[in-house]
TrEMBL record:
InterPro entries: Ig-like_dom, Ig-like_dom_sf, Ig-like_fold, Ig_I-set, Ig_sub, Immunoglobulin_dom, Neural/epithelial_adhesion. This is Lachesin-like. Residues 23-112, 129-181 form the Ig-like domain. Pfam families: I-set (PF07679), ig (PF00047). Keywords: Disulfide bond, Immunoglobulin domain, Repeat, Signal. It comes from Pogonomyrmex barbatus. Residues 1-19 form the signal peptide. GO terms for cellular component: neuron projection. Transmembrane segments: none annotated.
Amino acid sequence: MAAWKLTVLFAAVLPLCLCQITPEVLPEFLGPLENHTVIQGRDVFFTCVVNHLQSYKVAWIKSDSRAILAIHTHMVAHNNRISVTHNGHNTWKLHVSNVQKNDSGTYMCQVNTDPMRSQMGYMKVVIPPDIMDDESADGMVTHEGGNIRLRCVATGLPKPIVTWKREDGRNIILREDGQKQ
C-alpha cells in the first residue's frame, strides 16, 4: 500500500492551489536478520540494514520477553553488556558482549511505521562440554577379566553425549544388560 505526501508549493486567497503530490517512500529492510549460535562468554552482533528511514526510528526488542532494548541509539535496557551502534547511514548493530545462557532467544529489529515493520533473528547460546572430575571415575584399576564400574559426569549445552573408547581408539560396546561384549 503506497503512502502519499502532499506538498503545498504556493497558496493564496485564490481558489486555486499549485500542489505537488508525491508517493512517500517507506523504510525497507535490505536483508534478513541473521540467526546466531554463539559460545557462552563470546560476543555477538545482530545487523539490521534499513533504507529510507527518514524520521522513523529503529528499535531493538528481545521478542520472547517483550523487553525493549534500545530505540535508535538510546539504550532502554539497563544491561551494560548490550549496546547499539549506527553507521550514520542505514546500518544498525545490536552488540551483546559476554553472552550468557539467558541471552538465548528471538531478537527483533523494528521500524515504527504504521503498520510496524520488523524482522527477527534467533540467538542460541551453547556451553562447551566439561567433564566434572570430582564426580567422574579416575585412576581406577582392576585385574584382567575383573569388573569395574566407570562413571563420567559432563555438563554443557546442549547436554553432552558421553562415549567410552579403548586406548587403541575402538569403542567399548555394551550389551543390553550393561555388560561388555
